[in-house]
Write a structure and sequence with these properties.
With 502 residues, the chain is an alpha/beta fold. Helices cover 45% and strands 17% of the residues. It has a 6-stranded mixed sheet with strand order 1-11-10-9-12-13, sandwiched between helices. A 5-stranded mixed sheet has the order 4-3-2-5-8. Strand 9 and strand 10 form a beta hairpin. The longest helix is centred in the N-terminal third of the chain and has 45 residues. The structure holds adenosine-5'-diphosphate and magnesium ion.
């Protein structure tokens, strides 16, 4: 009897102990879950972009644009002059070549233009990475390489023009690095970015470097237009639709340019152009305003950035918007979640590796519409080596992607409306002309870049926010049009516009 009783008591104790352990584990798990949810809520609040806040960003952008146009160094926005006063309109004719350096790949293009009414007859592109060795060598090596690729492309081109040695061809050169432009076809490199570091090229006239390399290799071509990728995008946009007045790139980085009245460009000091207007390259990645919703993750990202002190930049627009950074902001949030709440069961070591989570992965998790979020599971497992993530945690991760992407898209939208405001196309009459409301004009903004084109929800959020800021009255007059490959094709179009034989 005693043994029986002892056994019964023993069992009861063990049962109780197990039950207590289970309860405490479930309490702990619930607590961890609560921590994770709180963290995401906090992020959501910090990234909030109600329309009132976006309008403050719009105003700040327009004000900074003014300051940057007044004097060099007057604003974080460089507002670089391009000397381009006339954009392609569809009447251009002939075969033109272009080079596009400064994107993910180096590209060579040939564009055939049929003149009025026929638009672009054909275009051919060849794309390849620049060998790592050449990115840090000498300028002569780099430009010799570029000229040799161009020569091979021209020679392999059966249906293109026959290279006659005595006919000099005009070339468009997209060179997407900070350049102090001297004329449409010449400019001095201010500094390298994007992994390029060729000391002896800094301060040199870039078009001349290429012209010399082409001469040396026996290629009878000359740079007719030296432009940056936003300007190329604007050119293609304008070629397709003459109401295009601005262009935005949202890819690895972000930047914008627009057509400004010359009399509003005070630092032009009365220099006139034929059209009374000039394209201005904003270099808006550097834009900063206290109205930007900045989080502890942005601050940490900034503190660890190699280019932290570059142009005394704190967290700029680019770091909140572009493809280079969005993935890493999400990674930072997940990393903190793993550390503080322990809801990602695996040791999640990979989450501490900077830039391991690329933005296209964020897009594929965000756009996962399977009921069990299988794609989210796949990304976590393949790229972060985190397995067995419960469905509700995967849902939470999707929410993090949504918050970060939505903020990015809405801030980019505010930047776009800022340009419209500066030029009096937002329905408010512009900064300069006070309160008088002008009648809205049809306005097209050309957009290009992998993030905008490839990430559907980003594009959707951006367009939604533009409409929201502009309001129902003006929004129908503003169109965002994709101008794919504008960076290269646009340079060829500008070579046509500024061709010496036109
Ligand atoms: P670049 O800016 O170098 O000229 P792209 O305009 O093609 O190149 O943009 C590439 C960048 O866009 C990538 O680095 C990535 O961050 C982002 N991106 C490309 N495709 C997608 C996608 N499907 N979803 C989200 N981001 C993407
Ligand atoms: Mg590009």
């Amino acid at each position: 009897g005693r043994v029986g009783l002892g056994l019964a008591v023993g069992c009861a104790v063990v049962t109780c102990a197990i039950a207590a352990a289970l309860v405490s584990r479930s309490v702990r798990r619930r607590w961890r879950w609560g921590q994770a949810v709180a963290l995401v809520r906090e992020l959501e609040e910090a990234c909030d972009t109600p329309v009132g806040r976006l309008r403050q960003v719009v105003d700040a952008m327009a004000v900074e644009m003014h300051a940057g146009l007044a004097s060099d160094g007057g604003s974080k926005l460089k507002m670089l002059l391009t000397f381009i006063d006339s954009l392609p309109d569809g009447t251009e004719e002939g075969t033109y070549y272009a080079l596009d350096l400064g994107g993910t790949n180096f590209r060579v293009l040939r564009v055939q233009l049929g003149g009025k009414g026929s638009m672009i007859l054909s275009h051919k592109v060849e794309s390849q990475p620049i060998p790592q060795k050449l990115m840090t060598g000498t300028s002569e090596e780099l430009f010799n390489f570029i000229a040799s690729i161009l020569k091979r492309f021209v020679q392999s081109d059966n249906d293109g023009f026959q290279q006659l040695p005595d006919v000099r061809k005009d070339l468009g050169f997209t060179f997407s690095f900070p350049v102090k432009q001297l004329s449409i076809s010449s400019g001095v490199l201010i500094k390298w970015t994007k992994g390029f570091s060729i000391e002896d090229a800094v301060g040199k006239e870039i078009a001349q470097c290429l012209n010399e390399a082409m001469t040396k290799i026996g290629l009878n071509m000359r740079v007719a237009a030296l432009v940056n990728n936003t300007v190329g995008t604007l050119a293609l946009g304008h070629y397709n639709d003459e109401d295009t007045v601005a262009a935005v790139i949202i890819g690895t980085g972000t930047n914008a340019c627009y057509l400004e009245r010359t009399d509003a460009i005070i630092k032009c000091q009365g220099r006139l152009t034929n059209s009374g207007a000039m394209v201005v390259n904003m270099e808006w990645g550097n834009f900063w305003s206290s109205h930007l919703p900045r989080t502890s993750y942005d601050i940490a990202l900034d503190d660890e950035s190699p280019n932290r002190n570059e142009q005394a930049r704190i967290t700029g627009f680019e770091k909140m918007i572009s493809g280079m950074y969005l993935g890493d902001i999400v990674r930072r949030v997940l990393h903190r979640m793993a550390e503080e709440s322990d809801i990602l069961l695996d040791p999640a070591k990979n989450l501490s590796v900077p830039f391991i989570l690329r933005t296209p992965l964020i897009a594929s998790m965000h756009e996962d519409d399977s009921p069990d979020l299988a794609e989210v599971g796949r990304v976590l497992e393949e790229h972060l080596k985190i397995s067995r993530v419960p469905l509700k945690v995967r849902r939470l991760i999707v929410r993090v992607c949504d918050i970060v992407t939505r903020r990015a898209a809405r801030l980019a939208a505010a930047g776009i409306v800022g340009m419209l405001k500066k030029t009096g196309r937002d329905g408010s009459g512009g900064v300069a002309s006070g309160r008088t409301r002008s009648k809205p004009r049809r306005t097209v903004v050309a957009v290009e870049g992998g993030l905008y084109i490839g990430y559907t929800l980003f594009k959707q959020y951006l367009n939604e926010a533009v409409r929201e800021i502009l309001g129902d009255e003006v929004a129908p007059y503003v169109l965002l049009k994709v101008s794919e490959d504008g960076s290269g094709i646009g340079a060829a179009l500008l070579a046509a516009v500024y061709s010496s034989d036109r």
